[in-house]
Description:
By secondary structure, this protein is of the alpha+beta class. 39% of the residues lie in helices and 23% in strands.
Amino acid sequence: MNSEKLADLVIDALDDVKAKDIVKLDVRSMTTVTDYMVVASGTSNRHVKALVDNVAEKAKQAGRRPVGIEGEDGGEWVLLDLQDAIVHVMLPKVREFYNLEKLWSIVPKGDATASEG
Length: 117
């Protein structure tokens, strides 16, 4: 399964459990850590956990075991690392504060030394 199909699987799994405001960010040109980041909101700590659990289960069924899960204890922001796709599920107030979509949408400027000469 390629990274784009994995990101689509993540989106479908989030949608199955009624995630809010799902956004897929293609970050291949910005980092080598992952190809896609998927950001979504849950309505409560329990909903955030249920969303991440469903994504992890669907990924396992597709043969993609999560590398790690961070933030499950608090449930305000849970990160699920699937290598080629990183999933951020947050409560709306946390998502608004960190604004990952804006952060990862900034186009990097070219290297000034490379463009001189």
